[in-house]
Amino acid sequence: MNLHEYQGKELFARFGIPVLPGQVAGTPEEARNIAASIGKTVVIKAQVQAGGRGKAGGVKLAHGPDEAFEKAREILALTIKGLPVRRVLVAEAADIARELYLSIVMDRQKKLPLIMLSAEGGVEIEEVARTAPGKILRQHIGLDGLRAYQARALMSRVFDDWKQVTQAADILMRLYRVFMDGDCSLAEINPLAVTPEGRVVALDAKV
Prior knowledge:
By secondary structure, this protein is α+β, with helices and mostly antiparallel strands.
């Protein structure tokens, strides 16, 4: 079963992975009310199980409730890769200093979970894998599970700031619990973002 982004973020939040506040809306009026309750610039994202939502016009910023109404109305009229948009996620927009990619996927050949980590997030990871495979770090998780020191060692390869290393390592440990407890084949954060203040947060969820 593939979860929608808003469902994946709800799951992440239950496991303590930091996500930004947001709610799902089925109408432009609901989107306006959610934006008003958040009280900040929001991002409105089409909830369809397809990649390339941004390129298809399914991700837009809104700087107030009335603009959220208009943007939601535009997105709810879209069909993306043959899928009609019936719901949008209205979430607090983030200032982003850096974007990374993080996922755990089941390696069926080795029958082990595989961590995939790249300093280049927010893009098509398949394209990175095809054109620059060396930019993706891969590490299998053994039968004894993932240890905190292993998570920190891996994150220290893409972060220079130790506070960000520890934040990202904690997110990885929690993502591993999502993966195992949910019997997942994939748990992905793209992008795993760093704010200008140095906070590491999950801006997307694919489970």
